[in-house]
């Protein structure tokens, strides 16, 4: 995927997930991420469809008044 998108380690990109909740315009929320590693599994379709992100990137911030 990195080669097809012409990106490399250190580049910043926007990603979105089709299963995430939509914003007010009906589109999934986009987040900015920096590419820190490139993973090549050599499995059919896996390399073109899967990205791994850290949990803090994925989770929305917890409001200060929220109880855990």
Write a structural description.
Helices cover 18% and strands 15% of the residues. The protein is of the alpha+beta class and 68 residues long. The protein has one domain (2-57). The N and C termini lie far apart (37 Å). The relative contact order is 0.20.
Query: Measured on Cα atoms, how large is the radius of gyration?
Result: 15 Å
| Quaternary structure of the protein | single chain
| Number of DSSP strand runs | 2
Sheet/helix structural class:
alpha+beta
Topology summary:
Blueprint (H helix, E strand, L loop, with lengths): L1 H4 L6 E5 L13 E5 L11 H4 L5 H4 L10
Describe the structure concisely for a colleague.
This protein has 68 residues and is α+β, with helices and mostly antiparallel strands. Helices cover 18% and strands 15% of the residues. It has a two-stranded antiparallel sheet with strand order 1-2.
């Amino acid at each position: 995927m990195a080669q097809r998108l012409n990106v490399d380690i250190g580049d910043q990109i926007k990603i979105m997930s089709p299963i995430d909740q939509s914003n007010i315009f009906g589109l999934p929320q986009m987040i900015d991420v920096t590419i820190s590693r490139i993973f090549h599994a050599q499995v059919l379709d896996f390399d073109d469809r899967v990205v791994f992100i850290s949990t803090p990137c994925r989770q929305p911030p917890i409001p200060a008044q929220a109880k855990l």
